[in-house]
Each structure stands twice: as structure tokens, then as C-alpha cells.
Amino acid sequence: MFVFGCKINTFCQYFKAIKNISLLLFHDYFKFIQSYRILLTNCKHSSFSSLQFERRLNFIIISCIYFLVYSNKKSYLCNRNQTNSYRKHSKDYQKVKPHKRQDVRDKRRVFKLKGQRNMKETVHFTKMHGAGNDYIYVDTQLYNILDPEKAAIAWSAYHTGIGSDGLVLIGKPQDGRRADYSMRIFNADGSEAMMCGNASRCIGKYLYEKGLTRKETILLETLSGIKILKLHLQDNKKVVDSVTVDMQKPRLENPQQFRGSSVLEADGRIFEGTYVCMGNPHFVTFVDDIDTIDIAHYGKILERDEAFPQRCNIEFAQITDTDIIRTRVWERGSGITMACGTGACATAVAAAQTKRAGRKSSIVMDGGTLEIEYSEADDHVYMTGPAAFVFEGEIEL
After folding, report:
1. What are the strands, taking DSSP E only, across 216-367?
2. Other CB atoms within 10 Å distance of the CB of residue 17
3. Largest Cα–Cα distance of the chain, in whole Å?
4. Rounded Cα distance, 48 and 60, in Å
């Protein structure tokens, strides 16, 4: 018997050679290699040496490769002729611009038919949390997220997506002379937030530990201004232990965000609170039953009160000890979260303003404790807390 001009002595060897050819034609390389080794082992009992058989089988492989190249070239020419013919006679033909990432050496025009789906681009993401406030982080220097609102909604879903409180985009600032990096943050409902304290700490850890910067003080551009991140490193200078963020001066009045009184009503219950702007709006109300109050019920109502034109983050706080404040948060656009950095700052400011606590306080949230200093020297609020990686992965854009 002959296979591509090579003599095979037995039917068994002929069958195995054909099997190898078939595996090669279907590009199953791992099975091909496995069968190839078995075939060489079995030929020890044949009428010629394994070296002779290996040489002949190698010739078969070369012949198969030549056949693949020739058939693919022929198929390409055939498809091109069919495409040109279709182009002349069909109105459904569309011309599509090459993708930006396409190899510049490929000068051929790219066409597709209506209804044909393109290959989806995958995006590498990192999930991090600060005191339990978890977000999805994407470096926009590597990926262009054209619709971050839609991505935030899809990816934040816990049962069908990654699961998070929102999406954070890290990028270059508009003015590189004033800041090192920029941050945009989108809540789980797709709405864009002005600022997030926990996310800013995570960005500091992300930038340093991924080697994007070796600075221990980072200037971060946000929609509420430039924030200064001071990294506290471990002794090995490789790991960020915690981050202090200069949240700047709080505002106690802002007509664009708050146009009401300090007393609000929700489903028959009266809440007296303090409005604090940390770039984003907060309403801090002190209660006596923080462990039993229905945060979801009252938080949802107060968030959309007519006193807040842009909606509002709601903090329910209780003094548990000297300068220790237990706080639970209903975040605008996300609902109940484990922690909120700007919410912790707002709580500390409200407590100091109402003489419930001093200028330094510990804010105990569901996900952890944040240390807040409302400085007398410059009236800035300084927030210190941890940041941690959760996991990384890839997801379709």
C-alpha cells in the first residue's frame, strides 16, 4: 500500500497513518502528537526499522502540510471571487473599517454581511475593595470603554456579571501638569459619581503595586477636583499597607445639591440631619437604633427626596463611644454598601459640627473602620484606610 508515495507494509500501519493525517487536517495537534508516538512504538515489530518508518511518516506530514497550504490558498481565492460576485449583486453588502488594533501590515479591506457578528473584545479587569466597598477597576490606557454606563450595569450584577458596587476607570489626566492619573467612577445603576474615597485608596495601591508609578504621593484627578493620595508602605517597600487621602474642604452649603431644611420625612418618620458636600452630596442623620432601622426602606426614600436635586447619599450614624461612630450607608445609585469613604468623611464632619465628636474620629462601617481627621489647621478632611485586591480576570466588552 502507498500513502502519498510512502510504502506501508501492513493494513494496521496504513490505518494508523490515515488516522494521523486526519488528525493533522483537523488541527488537533495534541492528539496528533500522542498518536504519532504510539505509531512509532508499534512499528518496532514491523518489517523495517523505526527510523525508516519515522522518515516515511515525516514525508507524510510534509505532504499534508503542503496539501493544507494549497487547499487554503485555493479556498481563499474561491471565497474572494464569491465575495466580489456578491458585492456586485447584493444590497446587503457592507464595507467595514478595519479595527484600530488590526495589524498594520494587513492592507486588505475588511467586509462583512449584515447580521454577521464581530469577534468581541475582552477586557482585563481587577476587582478591589476598600473596607468592603468593592469596585471593578480597568486601566483605560490599555482599553477604550466606549459605553462605561452600560458596562457598569452589566458587570456590577452579582448573578450575571462580576458583581460590585460599580466600575472605576483609571486613566491619564486631562492636565498632566496638575495630576498624575485620573479616575472616573460609575455606580451599579450606570450613573456617574463625582468622587469615591474608598476607590481612590484602591487606585493608589493599584498604581504602585502594578508598577505604574513609584511615587509615594500621587495626585489623582476626579470630577470633584485633585485628590492627594499618600501611600503608607510596608517595610519591603513593595506592598501598600494603607492610604491617606486629602479629601479637601467640606462644604456645608451647595444649592445645586441641597435645597431643603435639616429635617426630612420618610414614610411617617422624621429624620434630622446635616448636609455635607464632599464633592458628592451626603445627608448624615444620627439615630439611636442603627442595628434595627430599615436602612434600605428609609434610605431609598431619602435619596430621592425633593430637597436633593441630584439625589443624595444617606448616612445613618450612632455614637457608640468617645470619637467612635457606627455608620451605615445608603449610596446614591448603588444602595446599601459595606462602606463609603466620602460618607465616612461626611459623618465625621457632621459629628464635629454638632459637637457629638472631636476632630479625629473612627468611623466603624459594615466592611471595616476608617480613620478620619477633620483638621483645624486647614479645614481639610484626611481619610486613612486599607485597600485590597480581590481577584482579576477578563470579560467581554
Report:
1. 217-222, 225-233, 240-246, 263-266, 269-277, 281-286, 313-321, 324-331, 335-337, 360-365
2. 21
3. 101
4. 17
pTM: 0.68
**pLDDT per position in the chain (397 positions), as tens?**
444 444 444 445 545 555 555 555 444 444 555 555 555 555 444 444 555 655 666 666 666 565 555 555 444 444 444 444 434 444 443 443 444 443 333 333 333 333 444 557 899 999 999 999 999 999 999 999 999 999 999 999 999 999 999 999 999 999 888 999 999 999 999 999 999 999 999 999 999 999 999 999 999 999 999 999 999 999 999 999 999 999 999 999 999 999 988 999 999 999 999 999 999 999 999 999 999 999 999 999 999 999 999 999 999 999 999 999 999 999 999 999 999 999 999 999 999 999 999 999 999 999 999 999 999 999 999 999 999 999 999 999 8
How far, in whole angstroms, is CA 288 from its chain's centroid?
38
Q: How far is CA 391 from CA 66, 69, 125, 170, 367, in A?
A: 45, 43, 9, 17, 18
Residues with catalytic function = 196, 340
- Helix residue ranges, H only, 163-266: 197-209
Distance of alpha carbon 169 from alpha carbon 86, whole angstroms: 43
C-alpha 233/C-alpha 239 separation (Å) is 6
Cβ(130)–Cβ(202) below 8 Å: yes
Return the amino acid letter for 94: Q
